[in-house]
Amino acid sequence: MSANSKMRLDIIIPIYNCENNISNLLKELCIQNVYNDSIILIDDGSTDDSYNICKYYADRYTNIALIHQQNKGPALARNRGIDIGTNDFIWFIDSDDMIKENALEVIHSYLLYNTDILCFGMTMIGLDDNIEIYKNEQFFDKNKYNVYLGEIFNEIIDKSLFNSLCNKVFKREFLHKNNLYLDEVNLIEDVNYVIKVMSFYPTITAISDSLYIYHRIINCRNTVSSKYYLDKFDRYLELDDKFEELVNKYQLPRDSSKKINDILLCNIYSALVDEYSFASKISDYRNYNKIIKYLKNNSTFRMKLKDSKGVTFPLKVFRIVYLFFPISIVEIFVKIRVWIKSI
After folding, report:
1. pLDDT digits (tens, 9 = 90+) for 252-299
2. How far apart are CA 105 and CA 116, in angstroms?
3. Contact 10, 37 (CB under 8 A)
4. How far does CA 47 lie from the centroid of its chain?
5. Quick one: CA dihedral 53, 54, 56, 57, positive or negative?
6. At residue 203, does pLDDT exceed 50?
7. Residue 206 exposed, middle or buried by CB count within 10 Å (0-12, 13-18, 19+)
8. Which ranges in the chain belong to alpha helices (H)?
9. What is the pLDDT of residues 86-127, one digit of tens each?
């Protein structure tokens, strides 16, 4: 299938303290970009060398625009990119990720279908000090053209291809017609936006190619308070309710609601594992303990957890421990971990 030379992309990349990876990403985009797509870099108040690296590329490539603003968060940075761009389609990319070497060629070959959203597979790579720890690739079984969400809902949820902004290309006309901008929220703004967009019944072309590489950094965390996680869990619960509204809007079967609760369980479990992996001293234990108690006492979460199945063995174990074991058991496990790390 030949590339559609008439369609153009605005590739919008929020930039914030990403000096270690942004050059590799921009280099790859420049190598692939024979289509004269626009690359819009929104520097969101970086304090490292990110801006200078971006300026190096912007000075050398006429299709790269670099805009600097005070730190406002990735949602507002992306919104500014939407307003600045003028091309037919929009692709949001995160500055610490990477694209496959044929990504732009494949995307352009499908733009001729003029769908509201082009959705593709992605590869998650876990990195610890730039060493690959694990790799997980998810993609659609086969291509589906100009369908609605209900027709691919089970697959897009089961394969974790719904939540990300970066494995989707959006038609600008569709976003503008429905005034679709990202909400000014500090947590999980990408999932919130995807749910928002999907509620306007876009046509979707889902392709089996895996084109995006998501880097999940392991053991690289700034000091994060328990309040951060409590706020994050509250956001997950809010988004779970929005998911339910989406399920009702598309009149999807009851099984779809269970899948949504499985996503909630998976997200909260992952956040707990992240926090647990950093517990190395008593203050960390107290932090973690606050989170566990909060979840134990959250009736909404408990209700949703009862309605889930637990899609993997660790999630099934977590569900059982949460629902049927007293918090004292969980505390003992954390104390043992702290003690082991201290000797």
Report:
1. 887 777 777 777 777 777 777 666 555 555 555 566 667 777 777 888
2. 19
3. yes
4. 24
5. positive
6. yes
7. buried
8. 22-32, 50-60, 74-84, 103-110, 149-158, 172-177, 189-198, 226-249, 254-277, 282-296, 299-306, 313-324, 327-342
9. 999 999 999 999 999 999 999 999 999 999 999 999 999 877
* Sign of the torsion angle spanned by Cα atoms 38, 39, 44, 50: negative
| C-beta separation of 213 from 125 below 8 A | yes
In the block, tokens 């929020």 appear at 14
Q: Do 100 and 212 form a contact (C-beta atoms < 8 A)? A: yes
Predicted confidence band of residue 219 (pLDDT cuts 50, 70, 90): low
Examine the pLDDT at 39 and tell me if it is beyond 50.
yes
* Separation of alpha carbons 161 and 253, rounded Å: 20
- Judged by DSSP in three states, 70 sits in coil
3-state secondary structure of 114: coil
Rg (CA), the chain: 21
Q: What is the pLDDT of residue 100?
A: 97
Contact 57, 84 (CB under 8 A): no
Tokens found for residue 179: 């005034």
Separation of CA 298 from chain center: 25
Q: What is the pLDDT of residue 110?
A: 96
Under a CB-based contact definition with an 8 Å cutoff, are residues 87 and 172 in contact?
yes
DSSP for 144-196? EEEE-HHHHHHHHHHTT-SS-STTEEEEHHHHHHTT------SSSHHHHHHHH
Determine the Cα angle at 339 with ends 335 and 342, to 5°: 140
Q: Which two tokens stand for residue 138?
A: 């998810």
Class of residue 222 by CB neighbours under 10 A (exposed 0-12, middle 13-18, buried 19+): exposed
